[in-house]
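Morning, I've got a small favour to ask if you have a moment. I owe you a coffee for this, so here goes:
>
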Amino acid sequence: MNELNDINGLIGSTWGHIEKAAKIKDWLEMQQAFRKMAKLQGVSEQLRSLQQQVAGLSKESFPNGHAPVTLPGPLNPVPHFDNGRRGTIRPRELRIGTHREPISINNQIPIATANWIIKQGKVLPTIRNFVQPTNSGFRSSANIRQLDDGSFIEIGDSQDTLIQKARKLLNACEFPELRIEILLEDGTLRTA
């Protein structure tokens, strides 16, 4: 339970960081703080789940009627700003074939896919306005991130587009037979 308190403390301080960045209108700092917040919330949810599993196992191990400690409900979700679009359900897990990777925001779909491809020993192709070996050559409005191999990827699209881009990247890297699936927070499974 101490770990959960520590995580809640970090979440509280991250909210303060977000508020400070918003006051000085530092968009990059806000984005980084929101990413940290999403990761912390994911860790918090995983910890709660593990604690509930342990409590359930304890109940099975001790059928003497002692009820396991019940944990408080999940924290309020982190607000997710998606350029004014509403109705997007956040992802929870990326699945490429048998590989599973927890994710918490849409832009992690192509990043995690590209980094998985890199780990397979493949070289990412250059795809104009999507994947480039340097951070030049993108539109000026592009939202780019650096990948594990030092190349860059553009991540500023809708969930549907990002899933299709991940599929395009797998196909371009000779993985057309692998299924890509996104498990959403509502339990829906998106496939490309």
Remarks:
- Residues 91-191 form one domain.
- Helices lie at 2-23, 27-61, 108-119, 159-172.
